[in-house]
Amino acid sequence: MHPHERDHGHSQDRDHSHGHGHSHGHGEHGHSHPTPPGFKGFFYGIFVPHSHDAADSIDDAMEAHSEGIRALKISLVLMLATTVVQAVIVAFSGSVALLADTIHNLSDALTAVPLWIAFVLSRRVATRKYTYGFNRAEDLAGLFVVLMIALSSIVAAYEAIDRLINPRPMENIGWVIAAGIVGFLGNEAVAVYRIRVGRKIGSAALIADGVHARTDGFTSLAVVVGGIGVLLGFPQADPIVGLLISAMIAVLLVGTVRSVGRRLMDGIEPELVDRAEHALDHLEEIESVERVRLRWVGHRLHGDAILRTGPMTLTEAARLADKAEASVKKHMPNVDEMAVRVTAAAPGV
C-alpha cells in the first residue's frame, strides 16, 4: 500500500527534526480562519464572523456530503419562503422596486442548485478517467458563487448611481421597509446556517454561498435604511447606503476570492500542515519529518509525507508507515488519504 525505501542520499525538502520530550494539547483540534487585517478585516468580520469550529468535526466523508446537501436543502426552502412572503407584500403594495428585489432574491436562492449538484457529484466513486473522484466540482461551484457575489456588487452599485443621477420617488414606503426586513432576516438565517455547516465540514464553497446570502441580506437592510431616510426627509439616503453596501461587498469579495482561489490552486492553511506534523511527532521511531503535503479536494483532505528513521527492516518500515497514516487520520479525521514513505537508514549504519 505504501512505497518504502532505504536511502542514504535523500534530499531534504525541509529540515524538520522533532524532539519527543515535549507535550501538546491534543484535545483541541480546531484551526482558525484568519481574518484579513485592517480595513478589510473590519468589514470581513461583519459579514463572516470568526469561528473556532473545526473543519474536521465530521470524520466520515459520506456523512459530511450528506450534511452539506441537507444544509443546501434547508437553506433553499428558507430562501424560497422568504421570496414568497416578499411576493405577497408586492401584491399588496404594487411596488415595482419590491418586485425587482423579490425576483433578485429568487435568483440568488437558486445559486444553491449548482453547489447541490457538486455535492451530489462528490458522492460518486472514482473512475479510471477521474481517478481522484469528483470532489473538485465543489470548488468549481465555489467559483460560480464568487462570480455571483461580484455581480451583486456591480448591480448594487449601478442601481445606486442610477438613483443618484435620476432620483425617483419611493412609493409605499411602509411596505418597502417591511419587505426589506423580511429579506434581511431570511438571508441572514440562511447565511448563518450555511457558514456554520461549511466550517464544520470544511467546505469553502458552502461558506462562500453563505457569504453570498449575507451580502444579499445587507442589501435588503440597505432598502430599510433608505426607506427610513425617505420618511425622515432625506431621499438620497437610499442610493448613498446602496453605494456603501456595494463597497462592503467588494471588500468582502477579495477575501472570498482568496479562499476559493486557494482551494483551486491546492493551497492549504499552514496550521493544518502544523497539525499533521504534530500528529507524526507522536511516533517515537521517527527521527525527522522530511516533507508533509496536504491539499483540499472539495471539503476533504488528501496528502503525503516523507519520514526519516533509524535503521529498520522493510517490514518495520511498512508497519511504521501504516502507523503514521493512522496517527494523522486520528488527529485530522477529515483526511481521506495520507500516503507515507519511510526513508530508513540501512542496518549497521
Automatic annotation (TrEMBL):
Where is this protein found? Membrane
Domain Cation efflux protein cytoplasmic spans what residues?
269-338
**Which intervals of the chain are annotated as region Disordered?**
1-34
Instruction: Give me the segments passing through the membrane.
Output: 76-97, 103-121, 141-161, 173-195, 216-234, 240-257
Short name of any one Pfam family annotated for the protein: ZT_dimer
Assigned GO CC terms: plasma membrane
Q: How does it sit in the membrane?
A: Multi-pass membrane protein
GO MF entries: cadmium ion transmembrane transporter activity; ferrous iron transmembrane transporter activity; zinc efflux antiporter activity
- Give all residue intervals belonging to the Cation efflux protein transmembrane domain: 72-265
Q: Name one GO biological process term.
A: intracellular zinc ion homeostasis
Q: Which residues lie in Basic and acidic residues bias regions?
A: 1-18
Which keywords describe this protein according to UniProt? Membrane, Transmembrane, Transmembrane helix, Transport
**Protein family per UniProt:** Belongs to the cation diffusion facilitator (CDF) transporter (TC 2.A.4) family.
Query: What name does this protein carry?
Result: Co/Zn/Cd cation transporter
User: Which species is the source of this protein?
Assistant: Gordonia jinhuaensis
Lineage of origin = Bacteria, Bacillati, Actinomycetota, Actinomycetes, Mycobacteriales
